[in-house]
């Protein structure tokens, strides 16, 4: 097992984590605060070429941080990964690993997500932005009954929606990630409320819903969001909401252009450091 690590400001470390997620090949990518205003990135893989690619990409795209990698003893990496994932609070939700289960819930709805092959432990600004968007809708008495989570990853957003009473569909292009999502549904006792499909897009039978969904999440990346803008907009019922993320704040104009002429009204934006989450309503 190989550990890739880097230290730096939170915004840089969050962006570095997204870059490594996009590269792929890392079994777990996490970050945490190691000292005041200093954050540490840790990513684990089994292939040295993957680690070299990660270090190279970070050197080109984020020269401000000094990423490096080194081999680990096989029996140490899981422990180190878990220790690097402190619980995250997002509105009514508390996201944590099995190692922190029920230590300090403080009345929040708890979601158990361990670091693994699928994106979405709640630590990334895009995931947290989506959770805060859902929390705001529920607080405004707009509790969704039918939810679609496009690119569900670990399933964290579908689980969160199920915990407030929704029936959910999760789609995932990666079969391994879909398998992880299904396991996370079992761990969080939401299997009866969530179905996960391996699919590229949302046109597969079983995903389409007559009349549209009350809420659609699409926490993916800018280019696929733009490509799917017609399909995503059409999947929302009148008065329903569409939450978009996986975006840098600098990419907001492209998303606004793509969704501005499709019967959608921008009603809320969350900024988590360099990341953006946009909530639209179907008008």
Describe this structure in words.
- The radius of gyration is 18 Å and the shape is globular.
- α1 (10-23) crosses α2 (48-61).
- It has 9 helices and 14 strands.
- It folds into 2 domains: 2-84, Alpha-Beta Plaits (2-Layer Sandwich); 109-282, Vaccinia Virus protein VP39 (Rossmann fold, 3-Layer(aba) Sandwich).
- It has a 7-stranded mixed β-sheet, with helices on both faces. The chain has a 4-stranded antiparallel β-sheet with strand order 2-3-1-4, covered by helices on one side.
- The chain has helices at 10-23, 48-61, 77-83, 125-139, 156-163, 175-187, 222-227, 229-234, 252-259, and strands spanning 2-8, 28-35, 38-45, 68-71, 88-90, 93-96, 109-112, 146-150, 167-172, 194-198, 213-219, 236-248, 264-272, 275-282.
Topology:
Layout: E1 2-8, H1 10-23, E2 28-35, E3 38-45, H2 48-61, E4 68-71, H3 77-83, E5 88-90, E6 93-96, E7 109-112, H4 125-139, E8 146-150, H5 156-163, E9 167-172, H6 175-187, E10 194-198, E11 213-219, H7 222-227, H8 229-234, E12 236-248, H9 252-259, E13 264-272, E14 275-282
Parallel strand pairs: 6-7, 8-9, 8-11, 9-10, 11-12
Antiparallel strand pairs: 1-3, 1-4, 2-3, 5-6, 12-14, 13-14
Q: Which features characterize this protein?
A:
283 residues, alpha/beta, Alpha-Beta Plaits, 7-stranded mixed beta sheet, 4-stranded antiparallel beta sheet, 9 helices, globular
What fraction of the residues are assigned to beta strands by DSSP? 25-35%
**CATH hierarchy, class of the largest domain:** Alpha Beta
Strand numbers in spatial order across the main sheet? 10-9-8-11-12-14-13
DSSP helical segment count: 9
Topology-level CATH name of the largest domain: Rossmann fold
Q: What are the secondary-structure elements, in order, as H or E?
A: EHEEHEHEEEHEHEHEEHHEHEE
Low-confidence stretches: 75-80
Tell me the major beta sheet: 7 strands, mixed
Indicate the multimeric state: single chain
Spatial shape: globular
Helix content: 25-40%
Known CATH architecture of the largest domain: 3-Layer(aba) Sandwich
Query: End-to-end span in angstroms?
Result: 51 Å
